[in-house]
Amino acid sequence: MTHLIRKLLRHLALEKNRAVGLFRKFCRPDGEEWAGYLKRHGGLHAVGLHCSIQRNVTITDPTYVRLGNNVRMSGCTLFGHDGSVNMLNRAYGTSLDKVGKIDIRDNVFIGHQAIVLPGVTIGPNAIVASGAVVTKDVPPNSLVAGIPAKVVCPLDVYVERMRKECEGLPWNDILKRRGSAYDPRFQPELDRMRIAHFFPDDAGQGAPAKDL
Questions:
Q1: Domain that residue 18 falls in
Q2: What is the DSSP code (8-state) at residue 63?
Q3: Read out DSSP for 129-144?
Q4: What SS3 class is residue 212?
Q5: Each residue's pLDDT tens digit, 4-40
Q6: How many CB atoms lie within 10 A of CB 4?
Q7: Other residues' Cβ atoms within 10 Å of the Cβ of residue 62
Q8: Shared-domain flag, residues 55 and 139
Q9: Which of 41, 45, 81, 112 is catalytic?
Q10: What are phi and psi for residue 211, nearest 5 degrees?
Q11: Is the pTM of this model over 0.85?
Q12: Which of 9, 39, 72, 115 could form a disulfide with 47 if both were Cys (CB 3.0 to 4.6 A apart)?
């Protein structure tokens, strides 16, 4: 019965844009499924292929947002306008406007609690670190971090550094067998090996959390 209810809620949300709150609450769509919903019903200017948008992402002005292929966002905020304008217009009797597009190109990751301000282009091939505040364009092939966000290193240098680090991991063989995508079949063994590596002195490896 529960499976049928979830199937119905998915159909209503994804196909009809109805019962979306219930869909979020009971089906808990992952990033790819939620990106699929937003692509159809979220009002974004464009959304490419293989995108992932977590449910805790905030997009204030979707009309001005364009996403390329393989864009992944986790708990970040995209601002398409400057909210202070409304206060200024009332206070000074003006008719000001300050909005801007956010153009996120192919192969971009935006981390948790990062903030992207209007009028910027990100990528292609870029990472915005968690907590960064993006106030200007993020160059292609770059990793940016900080407030305001600045280039830390070229992205291909970062990838090569991570590749070398992974070669020394006890579970690197599993990562190679798993491939580039998440596969739940490998997760139990990955968790077991990681816990044994992280907490080598803990006799209760893999057991429920306990008081220390």
A1: 1-30
A2: G
A3: -TT-EE-SPBPSSEEE
A4: coil
A5: 999 999 999 999 999 999 999 999 999 999 999 999 9
A6: 8
A7: 16
A8: yes
A9: 81
A10: -70, 145
A11: yes
A12: 39
- Collapsing DSSP to helix, strand or coil, 52 comes out as strand
Strands 71-73 and 102-104: unpaired
Tokens of 202: 């803990």
Of 90, 87, 82, 93, the C-alpha closest to 115 is 82
Residues 100 and 182 grouped into a single domain: no
Average pLDDT, the chain: 93
81 catalytic? Reply is yes
- Size of the chain in residues: 212
| R_g over Cα of the chain | 21
For 152-164, write each residue's pLDDT tens digit: 999 999 999 999 9
Distances in whole angstroms, Cα of residue 76 to Cα of each of 57, 109, 123, 128: 5, 10, 16, 10
Nearest to 47 by CA among 99, 105, 109: 105
Report the DSSP pairing between strands 142-145 and 150-154.
antiparallel
Amino acid at 151: V
| 149 in the same domain as 52 | yes
Same domain, 88 and 23: no
Pair (70, 125) in one structural domain: yes
